[in-house]
Design brief:
The protein is 23% helix and 27% strand. A hairpin with a 4-residue loop joins strand 7 and strand 8. The longest helix has 37 residues, at 513-549.
């Protein structure tokens, strides 16, 4: 039940809409069957929600706080008049009233956090629950000063402790009394739990000796003393904080103590009091636990609380209740799978369904498959059906409900229609199915009687997870003794506190009338809101049903439309027509004939019309009158245009998708006149010329057009017949420039009735001059400062006849800008910096206006680089530099750098970027891209590395030949010739064990592993004359500076991409006789046996360990003992970590101290120790690992006979490596200290401050 600790909370109610795409916002959900309300999480306020719930279920505190009169606390309304109002207790009163009486699943704590003065920092950041609880009690205590509840917090939660120091010389005893509200107890090292930790804190004396001696006032000297702490007085409510967060002084890191720490349900605190005698006032009962799940860096808080006043309705959590959706306005709750299946079958004709459909219906109605909800307890679904023959009959795959097993749902059905829930006494005890409509009174009214096994009064426990509340067993608290999710705060209540009378345990007990009225109004509004939601939902359902059978279309006649600017226009006269979906088009045409009357000519056509922006266009025609509207895809809102199929308003109308209109802006050079017109996108260019000529009044043979792509065309040029407006990529809003010699009037031809948007009057001379000559702002980016944040923007006056090159020269001369390579570019607000303008174009033809944002940008950049590796005979010097054009390709850049470095073959080098720290980063693989496309900026630093780049999708893999694995028997050599044998192990005999580089292989990443091995075999044959079979090649990856073999590649048909082979991978090859490719359950290890009485190892031997039967240390020892013919008990093995020069002894000790639980077939829980797996953390034994072996004969001289430790495995080389590593760490630490010193002198960098936890309190003294 504690599995969903990290679920995100909704924050404001249900979010699921009704089935079928209902867009009606749902009403706030009512309380669940527990009858208790949660608190919404505002972001990260789980630490606050748990504390508020604990206080709300502390009856003595809740009732006394609610009973505080309003005249002492003030009114919230008076806060606006700057009057002193005790806002925190007032908001807590409102919150408690909502938690007790408001009929919602959860309530909001925003008003409470606002009264704390919290902002999004406190609400959105995690804080400690113990710190919050203490601050909250202090804030309440401060806010109640001067009222009748001034001592409320002190009387309920505060106790007193006394520290005594007794001089062991004279016997003098000094006392110090302290007040406490929390008892802090240690967790680490106290596996017996709370009582052991309390014994250590309050029953044992701390001896003050040595340097910690106590100065006695009587002896006037430092003497030995004994210090003890006891409890002088205990509060009615005792809070115990478990110290689960500690600090490791070695690693300087915080960590969470997850050790087992049991705590009792009842305990006697008399042993820890000053009197030490048993008393009934010292006996406490547990009533709340706050749980923390996660780590010391963050997590989630939940709470387990005992319902002392029996405010909720407890149900056995083991008996799951399944909510089945019967329809959008009702919910059916089933407490057993028998009831669930019976209910579903009872709704089917003949009370029968197939097994498959029944299983699918369970998933559809509950949202949870059978395998997740019931399989663990009842088995598979077919097995469950067959195990209940008294309820279900099985005939093949058909399941039928037995008549007397049908649920009694007649009353429920009646209640569903009337909207009233059935009373509790009418509910069948054997088949508890309750059907209730959405929005009725919550389940607190008319709850069923207590079932058998129900906890006693005041002993019901509930689990609070923000907005969710669910019942739980008290025994489940044992699950919170240990682990990452464990108890953090314990709340105990004095057992002999007087029990409240039955009438005083009502949720509204002690609540003032003003709060009762407020909650009552809120509940009334919630009820109305739910009823309104149910009404809208019914209306929506009816509308959906109507939509499924009817369709509403809009009919438009041609006489209500005209043609303007090449598209249809409308007088907005429309007729809505509703007809059945299954009605034929012929019947619809009859209705249209009736609507049109005599004005409609026979044989009319019906087209589908679409309207967008100011355009209307006709698409496909509805012709087949025998088809239904559903078959013709006529949906709601479809516009049908009725006409003769030829003309509208005397003009032809293009139809179809290909002739969809586009709006073009026609502009004339050096003129303010502009024409906006619509043209079909499939219009040929020749016809387009004629149309523009007609609109502009310029003869076709004199008309010249310029399109957005810069191409120009005159009327004399014969364009291709198939070339259309769409083919030259004209679209809505495109601008086409036109001009002509001997320009005629723009008046439209008398025969052309098109209304054209042309200026009626010629521009004045002043207007023409302002359009011809204007000022532009040009941003200067040729500044020498390479990373300047703000560039200077300068103004320049130009005219349309100037070329872009003349504008550049004028700008540079006017403002004395010196730049060898510069260009004018447009800085578009949406598209960014555009390509440079052609300097031969005029300003007018380039489309530059007074609003165009221009940039003078340098086209050169300076790049720094270094070589890797350095050529022979050259020492590494300062970084080299080259200056290149921004549009230079990567290949040109490599050639320039090679020339600057004095390299003769640039093709043998490639370029690599660096990161912020100057470390190697991505390789520039595409040599055809320019520097601008590669996002390269001036001043970037690169590494020019040796090596030719492979083609795209290929990798160049270096191949290294390693010595064949050494084995104890020499039978594996028999299959090779003497020449090959000498080649394979000749270097071993000479004492050389270093690998040999064979060459490189260029291969595609999509090639298989088998293809790679074939390529390697061919390389070995050509370079080493080594005749071997492909299956005798073991291929591994090589890692580290020591070039150690690591991961063995497996899977003949697996691609190199899947094997994560990249251009950085190095391949190592070994020749073996058999089993070259180990299985996935096998690990290839290197065994090294410690020499007797020496800190050295013998020759490395290979071990192929089969882990199919287990991956424990014991299994590995068995394999090693068989291989080395040594006793298993005498072996100690360890894994070598070469990067750290450390050895770690392999053991089967499990880190997790808990036990796994599993259920057997009878449902009984059993525990078993988890299996050890050294292939997982912390050992992670894998291919290529070195396993050191020490036997009894390998003990070092002077050994005391105890078990070997990690140092016994170390060699002198390990010791040297560790010393060098420590020296590097010390050097880095000195560098960091020097950097901090410089930062301290120059000013520290800004760091985001942490948000402290605080509660603002007014001054009420």
């Amino acid at each position: 039940m504690f599995g969903n600790l990290f679920d995100d909370d909704g924050g404001g109610g249900a979010t699921d809409y009704a089935e079928g795409g209902n867009r009606i916002p749902p009403a706030p959900p009512p309380r669940n069957r527990t009858g208790l309300a949660g608190i919404w999480n505002q972001g990260s306020t789980c630490f606050l929600n748990t504390a508020l719930q604990v206080l709300a279920f502390t009856p003595e505190f809740r009732v006394q706080l609610l009973q505080l009169p309003q005249k002492e606390l003030g009114k919230l309304e008076e806060k606006e008049f700057n009057r002193q109002v005790r806002e925190i207790p007032l908001q807590l009163q409102r919150l408690f009233a909502m938690l007790m009486l408001e009929e919602q699943q959860a309530v909001s704590s925003k008003d409470v956090t606002d009264s704390f003065g919290w902002t999004s920092g406190e609400v959105g950041q995690q804080h400690d629950a113990q710190e919050l609880h203490q601050l909250l009690l202090d804030a309440i205590s401060q806010s109640l000063k001067g009222t009748s509840g001034e001592r409320l917090i002190e009387a309920l939660f505060h106790g007193k402790s006394v520290n005594k120091i007794k001089c062991l010389t004279c016997g003098n005893c000094s006392e110090t009394e302290m007040e406490f509200s929390d008892l802090f107890v240690h967790v680490e090292g106290f596996s017996k739990g709370l009582q052991e930790s309390l014994d250590n804190a309050y029953c044992s004396a701390e001896m003050m000796t040595g340097t910690n001696q106590y100065k006695c006032d009587v002896c006037n000297a430092h003497v030995d003393a004994a210090r003890t702490t006891t409890l002088r007085s205990l509060p009615p409510f005792l809070k115990i904080s478990l110290m689960r967060f500690s600090y490791d002084m070695k690693t300087w890191k915080r960590y969470k103590v997850t050790d087992r720490f049991p705590f009792p349900m009842e305990m006697d605190m008399s042993t820890y009091t000053e009197q030490g005698q048993s008393h009934e006032d010292n006996v406490y009962e547990l009533y709340a636990v706050i749980i923390h799940g996660g780590s010391c860096d963050g997590g989630h808080y939940t709470a387990c609380i005992r319902d002392i006043d029996d405010l909720g309705h407890w149900e056995d959590p083991d008996k799951k209740t399944v909510q089945v959706t019967a329809d959008p306005t009702s919910v059916v709750e089933c407490t057993s799978p028998e009831q669930l299946v019976a209910f579903i079958l009872s709704k089917q004709p003949g009370h029968s369904m197939t097994m498959d459909k029944l299983s699918a219906d369970i998933l559809k109605r509950t949202g949870v498959p059978w395998s997740r909800s019931y399989k663990k307890r009842y088995g598979s679904f077919p097995k469950f059906i067959k195990d209940n023959p008294h309820k279900f009959l099985v005939d093949g795959n058909m399941v039928t409900l037995v008549e007397n097993a049908a649920p009694n749902s007649s009353e429920n059905a009646e209640s569903s229609t009337t909207g009233v829930s059935p009373p509790a006494e009418n509910v069948n005890d054997n088949c508890s199915i309750e059907e209730r409509t959405t929005g009725v009174t919550p389940m607190t009214n008319g709850l069923p009687e207590k079932e058998k096994g129900h906890p006693p009064s005041g002993q019901c426990w509930y689990f609070f997870n923000d907005s969710n509340v669910s019942p739980m067993h008290a025994k489940d608290l044992q699950n919170e003794f240990a682990g990452k999710t464990s108890a953090y705060l314990l709340f105990y209540r004095r057992k002999n506190l007087p029990k409240r009378a039955e009438g005083d345990r009502h949720p509204a007990c002690g609540m003032p009338d003003c709060l009762l009225e407020e909650v009552e109004k809120k509940n009334h509004l919630l009820q109305k809101e739910r009823e309104e939601y149910a009404r809208k939902e019914r209306e929506w359902k009816d509308e959906e049903e109507r939509r499924k059978t009817e369709v509403q279309v809009e009919v438009r006649f041609h006489w209500t439309h005209g043609m303007e600017k090449g598209v249809l226009t409308s007088q907005e006269e429309q007729i809505m027509l509703t007809c059945p979906r299954l009605q034929t088009l012929g019947h619809l045409c009859d209705a249209i004939t009736t609507l049109g009357g005599e004005a409609l000519s026979p044989g009319f056509h019906v087209h589908r019309m679409r309207c967008w922006e100011a355009k209307r266009h006709l698409f496909d025609e509805l012709e087949d009158k025998t088809k239904t509207l559903e078959e013709l895809s006529v949906e709601n809102g479809t516009i049908l245009f009725v006409w003769d199929g030829q003309q509208v308003d005397g003009q032809p109308v293009p139809t179809g998708l290909d002739s969809e209109p586009i709006t073009l802006q026609l502009k004339q050079y050096c003129s303010a006149q502009e024409i906006s017109h619509n043209f079909p996108k499939n219009m040929p260019l020749k016809q387009f010329h004629a149309q523009v000529s007609s609109l502009s009044g310029i003869p076709v043979d004199l008309l010249r057009l310029q399109f957005p792509d810069g191409s120009m065309q005159s009327g004399e040029e014969n364009s291709q017949e198939k070339e259309t407006l769409e083919s030259i990529y004209l679209k809505d809003g495109s601008c086409v420039l036109f001009d002509g010699e001997g320009r005629a009037s723009f008046a439209t031809d008398a025969n052309n009735q098109s209304n054209v948007a042309i200026s009626e009057t010629e521009p004045t001379p002043a207007e023409s001059q302002s359009e011809y000559r204007f000022c532009v702002n040009i941003e200067n980016r040729c500044d020498e400062q390479e990373k300047k944040q703000k560039w200077s923007v300068l103004e320049l006056e130009i005219d349309k006849d100037m070329t872009v090159g003349e504008v550049k020269q004028l700008f540079m001369a006017t403002y004395c800008i010196s730049c060898e390579a510069a260009a004018i570019r447009e800085n578009d607000s949406l598209k960014g910096l555009q390509t440079a303008y052609n300097e031969d174009l005029t300003v007018g033809k380039a489309g530059i206006t007074r609003n165009t944002k221009l940039v003078l940008d340098t086209l050169q950049m300076t790049l720094a680089f270094k070589l890797s590796p350095q050529p022979e005979g050259k020492e590494e010097g300062p970084a080299l530099q080259v200056t290149l054009h921004k549009h230079s390709t990567v290949e040109t850049c490599v050639e320039a750098m090679a020339q600057a470095a004095g390299l003769s073959e640039p093709s043998e080098w490639h370029l690599r970027k660096t990161n912020f720290f100057g470390e190697p980063a991505n390789i520039l693989e595409d040599l055809t891209q320019n520097l601008y496309q590669c996002a390269i900026n001036p001043g970037d630093f690169f590494i020019l590395e040796k090596g030719r780049l492979p083609p795209k999708g290929f990798v160049s893999l270096p191949i290294w030949l390693y010595a064949s694995p050494k084995q104890l028997d020499a039978s594996w050599l028999s299959s090779f010739s003497p020449k090959i044998e000498d080649l394979l192990i000749g270097d071993m005999k000479k004492g050389k064990d270093s690998p040999q580089r064979v060459g490189d292989i260029l291969i595609s990443r999509d090639a298989t592993f088998e293809d790679l091995r074939i390529e390697i075999r061919e390389l070995l044959v050509s370079q080493k004359q080594l005749q071997v079979k492909v299956n005798q090649l073991r291929v591994s990856t090589v890692e580290g500076r020591a070039k150690r073999l690591r991961r063995v590649l497996r899977g003949a048909q697996t691609t190199l991409r899947r094997l994560k082979i990249t251009g950085e991978t190095v391949i190592g090859v070994q020749v073996v006789t058999r089993d070259a490719e180990p299985s996935t359950d096998q690990v290839v290890l290197n065994l090294r046996l410690r020499k007797p009485e020496e800190r050295a190892y013998g020759e490395t031997q290979e071990l192929v360990w089969d882990c199919a039967q287990g991956s424990s240390t014991a299994r590995l020892k068995q394999e090693i003992s068989r291989r080395l013919t040594m006793s298993e008990e005498s072996l100690t093995i360890a894994k070598h970590f070469p990067d750290d020069f450390q050895w770690k002894i392999l053991t089967d000790q499990v880190q997790n101290q808990g036990h796994h639980q599993s259920n057997n077939k009878k449902g009984k829980k059993r525990t078993h120790a988890p299996k050890s797996n050294i292939r997982l953390k912390p050992f992670q034994v894998q291919d290529g690992d070195v396993i050191g072996v020490i036997g009894k004969s390998s003990q070092l001289v002077g050994s005391d006979g105890s078990a070997p430790g990690p140092e016994d495995f170390s060699t002198p080389e390990d010791n040297v490596g560790r010393e060098q590593q420590l020296e590097r760490q010390r050097q880095k630490q000195l560098e960091r200290q020097a950097k901090h010193l410089v930062d301290g002198l120059c000013g520290p960098g800004k760091r985001r401050p942490e948000v402290p936890l605080r509660i603002k309190i007014g001054d009420f003294t």
